[in-house]
Structures are given as C-alpha cells and as structure tokens.
Amino acid sequence: MHRRVRLALLSATAAMIGLSLAACTPASNPDGAASPSPTVSRTPSPTPTPTPTDRIIEVSVDGLSIDGGAAITYRDPDGAVALLTDAYGSAPEEGTVDAPYGGVNSRFDWGGAWLIVDQDLLWVQISADAPGAMFRTPEGIGIGSTRAEAMAAGAADVWDEDGDGVADYLSIGMREVPDTQSLVHPGEVGVEYIELQITGDVVTGLRGVGNDFTDI
Question: 180 and which of 42, 59, 149, 190 could share a cystine (Cβ 3.0–4.6 Å)?
Fold first, then answer.
C-alpha cells in the first residue's frame, strides 16, 4: 500500500515537471521552424542641438570684417563702433584721451576692446575675445596664440619695450604704402601692419593699424 502511494506521488511529480518544461519551450511553427522573437519598440534618442560656431572678426591692415564680409576701414569710425557694439553685445563707454600736439581724441571702450578716433581716422586695440566672437588676423593669429605660432605665420620683431633682448611687440601682415618713407629703414618705402602685443610668449593684444613711417 505505501509503495503504490509513493509511486503515484512520483508519477504526479514527473507530470508536473513535464508541464513546466513544456511551458518554457519556445513555440514552434507547424513546419518545425522556431517562431521569431517579438520586436521591441524603442523610442529614438533626441538629436543633440549643435553648438553655434563663433564668429570670426578679422583684424587686418584693410580694417575690421566679420566672417569674410567687406572690411570696415580705419577711416570709418561709425562703422567700427557699430561692429564692435554688435560683437560685444553692449554699447561702449565713451570718453576722451589726450592727443599729440595738444589735441583731444574720442575713446570708445568695451572692456575687451577700445577705439581711439582722431577726426575720421581710428586705431583699434583688442585685448579679449567677445562672447561668441573671436578676433584673428588673416594669418589666423589672435589672443592666446603663441610667439612661435606668430613667427611661423610671418610676424617680425618690432619693439623690445623692457630691453631684455626679446621683442614685446611684433608686426604681422606688413604691406608697403606708396609715397611714404620708413623711419626704421631709411631709404625704404614705409609699411603698415597689425601689431601683436606679447606677454610671456603669448599674444595678449592686437593693434591696428600700425606703421613705420609716422612718429605718432
């Protein structure tokens, strides 16, 4: 009696195991091929928004230009003020500075750049890039470039301010100006250029436009 009950229990257990295994076995097509796994629907990830490219403001012997546009010359103070106001996103502080021979010139200051205007002629100095805009010479030299990079791009020594034997100012983009005489190289035609201020072998300022045929 006990043996029959035991056999019945074993048979029931085996049947349950068989049903469990059958439930775990993948369903088959009538022809014996396995049914394909169900496709899982996935929501595509959003495409990241690209970072806008900084505008390039070129400082050359011709003037100032944005992204390859027409140059605003050094005889267009209103155009230069408008360009830098757009670049820095704010109007400049306006004032005056003493000029040679007892004159007074207008000064426009944006913090990272300033203009000096003498009647219809202007000088610009850049000491910091603007938000969303980088200042560069046509050779690609700007704030943060190294002395070695500037020299490789064609720059030349101009002035050793502290007398340590290493130039603190370089010239780049030199161009001859007809009907002028160089004060640095007597007998030669004068040149104009963009001046690079160097601090610790790094470019910390751009000045335009410089020349070697005037004494101011």
Answer: 190
